[in-house]
Amino acid sequence: MQPWILYAIISMIFAGLTSVLAKYGLQNIHPDLALGIRTSIIFILVAAVNLAGARFKELSNLTWLQAGLLVASGITTTVSWIFYYRAMKDGLVSYVAAIDKASILITLLFSFVLLKEPVTPKILLGGFLIFAGMIVLIWK
């Protein structure tokens, strides 16, 4: 198995746990406060990983374009997380997570248009099935 597949599987497992843990953590506080706590922990842990791996030395390799794109990614992540936590506060985890995970459809669209990744029948079918699965999961 290629390392990136293993990393993706580990990410999937922890992302699934994240939603359930967050829902419990939101019970008596505003979602923005919960997100602030979560994000602070993320910052501390990611900084520690980078310090341990001496990754900060690589900052000199970063171009202005790359820095700008990473800042834009941080902004879009922030907006996504704010609304995800607000949805989690009031909604069912299974519904909110299903809608959120359908973000892969946006990722696919932009990967085709901006990154020029190949559009194949297999990817289109998979995207359709993800969309259909989301609809089935949230249908009342």
UniProtKB/TrEMBL annotation:
UniProt-listed InterPro entries: EamA_dom, EmrE-like
Top-level division of the source organism's lineage: Bacteria
GO cellular component: membrane
Transmembrane segments annotated in the record for this chain: 6-26, 33-52, 64-85, 92-115, 121-139
Assigned keywords, A-Z: Membrane, Transmembrane, Transmembrane helix
Residues covered by the EamA domain: 3-138
Protein name: Transporter family protein
